[in-house]
Design brief:
This protein is α+β, with helices and mostly antiparallel strands. The chain is about 25% helix and about 25% strand. A 6-stranded mixed β-sheet has the order 1-2-3-4-5-6, with helices on both faces. The longest helix is centred in the first third of the chain and has 16 residues, at about 15-30. The protein starts with 12 loop residues before the first helix and ends in a 20-residue tail after the last helix.
């Protein structure tokens, strides 16, 4: 993967998506309409929380996830892209977490990036958790193997295998050891 030098001050969010995120996703092995699918700009709606009885007039909240990556159709992660001039603060992290934790997505990870910085979070740790991994664009080439080992489709499927519940008869009675 190539890592050209950019004048980040002249780039917008669309540039970050096209010049940095899209090549990274292709490098990792994600492609649209494949088993390792990438979905762009997925619209989501959330029923607004209320006190008391829900009314038909209660408004829905709406959002749009920039990227949803779906490894093998089984394990998902989300990317929220921002312009280079935008800080990757708590508000951005909470926005990305809200997409990742949405019931239709249920992503295990979410990433926030403005091209200059990349931060990876584990969704089930909540919107206020510390990043599991972070790096700058300048570090991306040297950290690419770490990203591959976490976010590539093969790594995602290995780290998050399909759970199977054995509903057959037990081999024997349960035993509790007391010491």
């Amino acid at each position: 993967m190539e890592f050209p030098t950019y004048d980040f001050d002249s780039l917008g969010e669309t540039d970050i998506r096209e010049e940095i995120i899209a090549p990274l996703l292709r490098h990792l092995g994600y492609r649209s309409s494949t088993p390792d699918n990438v979905i762009r700009e997925q619209h989501l709606s959330y029923p607004q929380l209320q006190l008391g009885r829900r009314k038909p007039t209660d408004p829905f909240l709406r959002g749009k996830a920039d990227y949803i990556c779906d490894a093998g159709g089984l394990v998902k992660w989300v990317i929220e892209a921002k312009a280079p001039g935008e800080a990757l603060d708590e508000v951005v992290e909470e926005q990305a977490w809200s997409y990742a934790s949405h019931p239709e997505i249920r992503a295990v990870y979410f990433v926030v990036t403005n091209g200059r910085e990349f931060k990876l979070f584990q969704t089930n740790r909540g919107s206020k958790a510390e990043a599991l991994f972070e790096c700058t664009y300048e570090q991306l080439a040297s950290k690419l193997i770490v990203i591959e080992n976490i976010l590539s489709p093969a790594a995602m499927l290995k780290a998050h295998p399909t759970q199977e519940v054995d509903i057959g008869k037990p081999l024997g009675p349960s035993v509790v050891l007391r010491i």
